[in-house]
Automatic annotation (TrEMBL):
Taxonomy, superkingdom: Eukaryota
PANTHER family, per database record: PHD-TYPE DOMAIN-CONTAINING PROTEIN
Species, as recorded: Trichonephila clavata
Ranges in a coiled coil: none
Annotated protein name in UniProt: Integrase catalytic domain-containing protein
Ranges for domain Integrase catalytic: 13-105
């Protein structure tokens, strides 16, 4: 029998949904809107506790579009305590901008 590593505390301690959130992008996906072939991306917000998924459609992978998607997410689900992302440039730049904003407030 193989011994498994213990789960991270964020996964086993009861908490409100989306208190601990993971964010990633998926795509590109083809959409039909005004142009016959338009491209968009999907911002995936994953709850670490319940594994629930919140999806936002973004037109590109820029920091500005990501911050708008994050704003919509926070407006709908509330402000997470912890956010996990990969090392994409978009997330690094957004982190720096949010830290500056938080210091001003």
């Amino acid at each position: 029998m193989q011994i498994e590593a213990p789960l991270p505390s964020e996964r086993v301690v009861p908490s409100a949904p989306f208190t601990i959130t993971g964010i990633d992008f998926a795509g590109p996906v083809n959409i039909r809107c005004l142009k016959p072939r338009d491209i968009a991306y999907i911002a995936l917000f994953t709850c670490a506790t319940t594994r629930a998924l919140h999806i936002e459609l973004v037109s590109d992978l820029t920091t500005d579009k990501f911050l708008l998607a994050l704003q919509r997410f926070v407006g709908r689900r509330g402000l997470p305590n912890t956010i996990y992302t990969d090392n994409a440039t978009t997330f690094h730049v957004a982190n720096k901008q949010l830290i500056l904003l938080w210091q001003i407030l």
